[in-house]
Amino acid sequence: MMDPPDLDSFDFNFSLHIKWNQFTNSLADTQPFKNFYREGKFFYLIEKFNWKWKERYLIEEESDITILRPLQFPEPARIFIKSTHKDAKGFRLEYCIISMIEDRITVISTGYSKLRFFNNSSRDEPIHSTTTDLGKH
């Protein structure tokens, strides 16, 4: 079993609202976790960066998910998110999903998304000022 990461290093988290149809007994089924990470990414960008969807674009260049065990129903779980590796071209979001049964923290899944900035007028051109925005949060 994996030791929990330093959850204090994550600057955003929320409870997952898990539906019955999101559960699976297979470690090979990554779709529920992709959905959790997509939802987390969306809320993180809105909350932390007040993201302006019509002015700034993000392209997911790379992502990875490690599932250590499936979620069980009705297991209370939280997703933790932080941004790392910030530069003029983009940044990386790191994710961790934990279970909290009887105040015991168990890592269920970890993952990351490498995101690149593009502006509205030329999607091939990075937005350099966005990196400054990231550093403020």
Count of DSSP strands: 5
Low-confidence blocks of residues: 126-132
Strand order of the largest sheet: 1-3-4-5-2
Q: If helices are DSSP runs of H or I spanning 4 or more residues, what is the number of helices? A: 2
Largest sheet, if any?
5 strands, antiparallel
What overall geometry do the principal axes of the alpha carbons give?
A: globular
Q: What is the C-alpha radius of gyration, as a whole number of Å? A: 16 Å
Terminal CA distance reads 32 Å
- The percent of residues in helical segments reads 10-25%
* Strand fraction: 35-45%
| Structural class computed from helices and strand pairing | alpha+beta
Give helix and strand order, one letter per element, not per position.
EHEEEEH
Care to describe what's here?
- This protein is of the alpha+beta class and 137 residues long.
- The protein is built from 2 helices and 5 strands, in the order βαββββα.
- It has helices at 31-49, 129-135; strands at 12-15, 56-67, 77-87, 90-101, 104-119.
- Strands 1-3-4-5-2 form a 5-stranded antiparallel β-sheet.
- A hairpin with a 2-residue loop joins strand 4 and strand 5.
- The N and C termini lie far apart (32 Å).
- The model is unreliable at 126-132 (pLDDT under 50).
SSE layout and pairings?
Blueprint: E1 12-15, H1 31-49, E2 56-67, E3 77-87, E4 90-101, E5 104-119, H2 129-135
Antiparallel strand pairs: 1-3, 2-5, 3-4, 4-5
In brief:
This protein is α+β, with helices and mostly antiparallel strands and 137 residues long.
